[in-house]
Structures are given as structure tokens and as C-alpha cells.
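Lab meeting minutes (informal)
Scribe: AK
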Amino acid sequence: MTDRSPRDAAQLRLAAIVMAATGLLWLAANWAGRRFGWPSEYAFLADLAAIGGFVWSLLVTWRIWRRGASPGKEG
């Protein structure tokens, strides 16, 4: 396991929080939509917001991984 800088650790924590919150909020939005009979357009908005949160987290995680895998670092 490689040592991460405090900045990388903070960004990874933020990405993990965003992933968890995105999943929970997406589930809650789908449940509320069915429970209260919201139009399907709201479900699509919730899906797009969830995709955005997951893609952002993926990009942040990938960038940190690439920074750690750069040549010249010993692991």
C-alpha cells in the first residue's frame, strides 16, 4: 500500500462520501417518487443527478490513482 498525501486522503474521503450520499439520495428519490406518485420526469432527473455524482467520484478517484501510479514513485 502506498502512502497518500493528506490532500489525496481528503479527496478520497470526499469521493467516498459523495458516492454514499448519491446512492442513498437516489434510492430515497425513487422511493418518494413511487410513494407520492411523482411524474416520471422527476425520476429521470434523479437518475441524471445520480449519474453525475457517480461520474464525478469516479473521475476524482481515477485522478488520484493515476497520480499514485506515476513513474518515478516507488511502491
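Next up, CB showed the second protein from the same session:
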Amino acid sequence: MSLPHSHEIIETAQRVGLGNYRPAPLVVASGHGCYLRDTEGREYLDLTAGNAVTAVGHAHPRVTEAIARQAAAVLHTSNLFHNEPSVRFAQELTRRTPFDRVFLCNSGAEANETLIKLARRHHHRLGDTARTRIVAATGGFHGRTMGALTLTGRDVYKVGMGPLLGGVHHVPYNDLNAMAEAVGPYTAAVVVEVVQAEAGIIVADDAYLRGLREVCDRNGALLFFDEVQTGYGRTGTFLAQEHSGVVPDACSLAKGIAAGFPMGAVAVREDLAGALPPGSHASTFGGNPVACAAALAVLDAMDDESMIENAAVRGAYLAARLAALAADPEIPALEARGKGLLRGLVLPDHLDPASVLDEFRERGVLLSRVGGQVLRFSPALNITLKELADGLDVVERTLRAALRR
């Protein structure tokens, strides 16, 4: 059976879709490793990994086999019963992290919604019912559901969406003094990203994260990290928080967790084990056995192929190449920043990132933009040196050409 031409699919999408997305005029037909192929047969080096989701590459054989095997056994059980993959996965997650308990859900936004409820219900359980306020950071991004959107510190996502959830206050990111002033006796929790990815790959100072732990402990508030985009080896450690040595009370996870199968999680310390008693919170599809089988296969693949170590090594190479681009007067780039294989290259205001991304795509390389003028690099964690070098060569040539126009 032949595939329809891409223009037919795109025209149909424009006719039947809601219009809230602006995808590139590319229809993906298949993927393998760090490459995608479109319906016209053209191949692209994918340096986005589906916004840091396909962390082990496209169609990893271990993952696809696990999904097929589990789908042939049982697709869904709901939370009325146990299923082995979900229990095994939760056990694996606690083994690899400083956390003791796990709640499974379907996305990063749902995980962050859980954090809001976890914070308030925890203090309610302790009798401190006045502790309902949550402090987050400007520039942060925590998802599109109403609670997660309220946590998000960028107004552009909130236009026409109000009124939002009450009791959330935002202070500047990486500003410990501002956070110390905002946290007090009515604060239930502080929620921040270890790296603000959507804001433009803004990395938190280690001293800032350590200071947050002290501020929360001093005031009796909980500390939550959003590791939806930074977890799962993305920064060269399993969780990005490991770089600072700070252990929050809970963290949210998603994206790379199941190689593209929809899944999210909240990992918590034992002190919060009873914060959400039976009936207080649930997710119909959370802990889906197929998703958990995929997630277990992701962990096995990461271990067998030393992907986290590869992310650290390739991340250092990527950092050096991007820093060289930013320092080159013949390249229109202002700054390079990030951690591991989550990196950003800041473009000057006069250069249209959308046009640059189109040129990359025409030359066979896929990238994305964040924070307005920032090119985001978030390739699969098993990317080879040659693949990364080839992709960066295209980036360099394209940016040099842009300067000459």
C-alpha cells in the first residue's frame, strides 16, 4: 500500500485539525536511530529527538519489541488491579534515584498537576490547612493544563485562558533573595526546573538550588523539581539535580521516560508517602502496562549502551562546538548555554529563527526553537560523534550563509 503524498496529508491536517499547532511541512513516515524519513523518502538527522522524548533514538529494537510483546499480552488494566510492568518500573525508578515512592501518569503536565495536589494535601494532612500557596519562577514552563499553566511563568501561554488557579506566585529564576522573600508560613511548596528549557535553556546555578533547599527547610515548605525535560540522562546524569547534590522532596518526570509512548511520573521521598491517600488522586491510564514495558526497555537500553555516559561525553563536544560558533565573529550567534545534550544557541534579534530552521531542514537537519531566539539541541542520548559533527557542520554552514544575506 503506497503512502499518500505529503501535500495531501498536510492539506487534510489543515482542514481537520484545530489549528493550535504550526508544524513544519514535513510528514514523518518512519524513523531509525537519530534519523527520520518523510513520506517522500527523504532522510533527516534529528537533533531534537521529539523535544527530548525519543532519548534512545527512533524505533529502538529493544523498546519496540517490549511494546509488541506487552501489547500482545494485555494493553490495559486500570488502577483497580496491579500489573507487573508498572510495579517493576516503579521499583527501578526508586533504585536509581533518591526517591522512595512513585506515582505513574501520562504526561509531564499531569505529573506537575500531581505535584500541586501533593503539596496542598500533604499540609492539609498535617493540619496546616493555611499552607496552600506555591512559589514558582518566571520563565518556567510546566505544561498546558490549567494547574500546570498557572505554575508556568510565561504570560504568552496564558492569553485568554484566565482565570487560572489561585495561590501561585512567581519570582525571578536564579534569584535566591527573591525566593527567600516569597517563601513564608503559608507556602506549601516551591516548584522550579533545574534547567528552564522552553525559556531558552537557562541553567540554574548550583548555589541557587542548594539555597532553595535551605529556604524551604527553614520555612517548612516542600521543594519540588520539574525534571520533565532534564531527567533520564539528558544532562549527563540520570537526574539533572545530581549535578548540584540537592535532593528535592519530589520531582516530576516524563519526555524520555518511555521513548515516545505517553507516560509521566512523580517520584517522592518517604515523608510524602501518605500525602495522597486512597481516593484523593488517580489516573485512568497511569501505570499502563505497555507504557511501563517501554519504560523498562528504555532503562535497559540506557544501561547496556552506556547512554548516560555518552550524553556527558557528547554533551561536552556539543558545548565546545556551540561555544566556538558563538565566539566566531562570522557566525550570527550570541551565546551558547546548557548542560549535557540539552543545549541552546542564541541568535541575534535580526535573524528569524523560523527561516533558519527551514534552511536546516532543507539541508537535512532537524532542530527546534525555544525562548524566542534560541535554537534547541536535544538529540538522542546514543547519538554518535560523527552524527553530531555532521549535524553541527550543517548548522555552521547555514549560519554563515545567513550572515551573508
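CB comment: The longest strand covers residues 187-193.
No objections, moving on.
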